[in-house]
Design brief:
A seven-stranded mixed beta sheet has the order 5-4-1-6-10-7-11. A two-stranded antiparallel ribbon has the order 2-3. Helices cover about 30% and strands about 20% of the residues. The chain is of the alpha/beta class. The longest helix has 17 residues.
Length: about 260
């Protein structure tokens, strides 16, 4: 793959989750349907509008069903890697390393269970990343109720410090209402080098992708949090209740078009 300065990014989509709370063990979480299409299809439609050089989908639970369905959609630039154990988002992203060995451009990381995130928001995010000459950018939103989301922590001057998962957040940190979208943009070498330093010493015993922010900040790279998404479009699907909420937002959005 080429690595010209203005090339479009490669995209990693995380789609390995079991979705235990979806109450359907025979179905991968990203195969739950919204308006007749699996969640992963909604994500892929928007992702492909960015004209990515390549899309790598990280599969796991019910992987064959996910792969078969995605291949049936006819996209030509997609490959798959497997996360055999559910060891966290950092571990999941690291499975894509083998697909990107000769690539040194930007990588955009998306979640396969966040179907409402628009290509317009992602394009603005990418443009902001370039405008700020950021090494690492994180897409964020202000949440009316941030419960359940990782929090964006800033200093008194508003500079981005770190992301704290809710289960690891202090009382003060839980009061913050700027949330992590799970969408990251950074150079390939920064991503995979920093993942080597991620630990699983946290309440979940998992390798959090979010930990790369503090790791990279210690290396004095330029890290930027861009509050450029609407809370509605960042809704993830982890339960039937989540799916109902996403459906409400989806149909409200369709009625406005």
């Amino acid at each position: 793959m080429s690595s010209e300065k203005n090339q479009n990014p490669c995209i990693i989509i995380l789609a390995a989750g079991k979705g235990k709370r979806m109450n359907n063990p025979s179905l991968a979480k990203v195969m739950a349907t919204l308006d007749g299409k699996p969640l992963i299809e909604h994500v892929l439609i928007e992702a492909n509008k960015l004209l990515p050089e390549k899309i790598i989908i990280v599969v796991g639970h019910q992987k064959d069903n996910v792969i078969d369905y995605v291949q049936s959609l006819g996209f030509s630039n997609i490959s798959f890697v497997e996360q055999k154990e559910q060891l966290g988002t950092g571990h999941a992203v690291n499975q894509a390393r083998s697909e990107l060995l000769n690539y040194d451009g930007d990588i955009l990381i998306l979640a396969g269970d966040v179907p409402l995130l628009s290509s317009e928001t992602l394009i603005n995010f990418i443009e902001n990343h370039k405008k700020n000459e950021s090494d690492v950018s994180v897409l964020t939103a202000l949440a009316p109720n941030p419960y359940g989301y990782g929090r964006i922590i800033r200093d008194d001057e508003g500079n981005f410090i770190k992301i704290v998962e809710e289960k690891d957040a202090s009382e003060d940190e839980q009061k913050e209402n700027e949330i992590n979208s799970g969408v990251f943009l950074l150079k390939s070498d920064l991503l995979f080098d920093s993942l080597q330093a991620v630990s699983n010493q946290n309440s979940q015993g998992e390798y959090y992708l979010t930990d790369i922010i503090e790791i990279l900040k210690r290396k004095n790279v330029k890290v930027y949090a861009y509050a450029g998404a609407e809370f509605d479009e960042l809704q993830g699907v982890n339960s039937p209740e989540n799916l109902k909420k996403v459906e409400e937002f989806y149909y409200i959005g369709k009625s406005k078009k």
